[in-house]
TrEMBL record, chains A, B:
Coiled coil: none annotated. May play a role in DNA repair. It seems to be involved in an RecBC-independent recombinational process of DNA repair. It may act with RecF and RecO. The gene is recR. It holds the Pfam family RecR_ZnF. This is Recombination protein RecR. GO terms for biological process: DNA recombination; DNA repair. PROSITE patterns: TOPRIM. It comes from the Bacteria.
Length: 197, 197
């Protein structure tokens, strides 16, 4: 159990993953060593591959293995609808619900005077550029129902006023709730009942 | 989000780790992609290294990166005390308590008629071989305080009777408790108050 032991190194790194503490990291590493062939080897290869290829989409901020993500290059999704989310996890949650067939814009957070996060840090200029470039007719604000999320939604709605129709997810998102915690049905209901912002 | 996407592959493999479900696997992978330099790259390298080098100690069943683990090769730990544990996680728990300076024997489970686990599956023959080879004077049975753990402890104590002194962890291990869940102080107390089996 020396610090330079690769097993200890692996435990230390695993413990830095969200949701894993030192104890669950130790359990996970023992499990990996026991399942070296069926799990550890494919996992180490998948990590190496993701480390080599994963990047943010230059257009929307989604993560994928190409400079422009598959959603942005899918002509069938250029239907004029653009869904603005805070985070890639929220984009994934929307995709799992399989109800939205337009494109996304991932802000990468919310405005926060306290943390010094302004519009430029949130890909908001890029959002404005996309309106004309992709013939956007409606922007759907799918931000979390938190104070920061709604502050950011209002700021973006102000910027978009007069340029494009703006709506927001409505019915079904609980106060203080985060999209990534909702079931698919709730997301579907919220999208279908979206209202003008 | 195609099945052949390396990001999806990584999420699917991460979700198979104990303690991580699909949702926490997605969170972990997004975190890794964001922390590519400081976390994902070292983690993928550590996994590759562990996949290449980790193995079970041929003598005691501990995992390390050599055929015989550092505890078994440490002459200072050849003091005649041999601590029998179910699992490598239990060995690590004992080591964290920093109170035991002998060697270990990892059974790799407990006897179970139901699951077809007999003495040969548990390195019990190897335990017998070690008694003479390492001049063992006392075997400390540090098995979990579960029914299977105690059944196994009694079986081993019977095998060892008349050959070596046998003790077991006593005070401090709660009924139904598992070593890996105990704090270091409890383990220390249990070891210091061990009683003849
Ligand atoms: Zn994109
Ligand atoms: Zn060993």
């Amino acid at each position: 159990m020396k610090d330079t032991d690769p097993i200890d190194t692996l435990i230390g790194l695993m413990a830095r993953l969200p949701g894993l503490g030192p104890r669950s990291a130790r359990r996970a590493v023992l499990h990996l060593i026991r399942k070296r062939g069926p799990l550890l080897q494919p996992l180490s290869e998948a990590m190496t591959e993701v480390a080599r290829t994963a990047r943010e989409c230059l257009n929307c901020g989604n993560v994928s293995t190409s400079d422009i993500c598959p959603i942005c290059t899918d002509e069938g999704r250029g239907n004029g609808l653009l869904c603005v989310v805070e985070d890639v996890a929220d984009l994934w949650a929307m995709e799992r619900a399989q109800v939205f067939r337009g494109r996304y814009h991932v802000l990468g957070g919310t405005l926060s005077a306290l943390d010094g996060v302004g519009p430029d840090e949130l890909r908001i200029p890029r959002l404005m550029d996309r309106l004309g470039a992709e013939n956007v007719t409606e922007v759907i604000l799918a931000l979390n129902a938190t104070i920061d999320g709604q502050t950011t939604a209002h700021y973006i709605a102000d910027q978009l006023e007069g340029r494009v129709s703006v709506s927001s997810l409505a019915q079904g998102v609980p106060i203080g709730g985060e999209l990534d915690y909702l079931d698919d049905g709730t997301i579907t209901a919220a999208l279908n009942a979206r209202k003008r912002f």
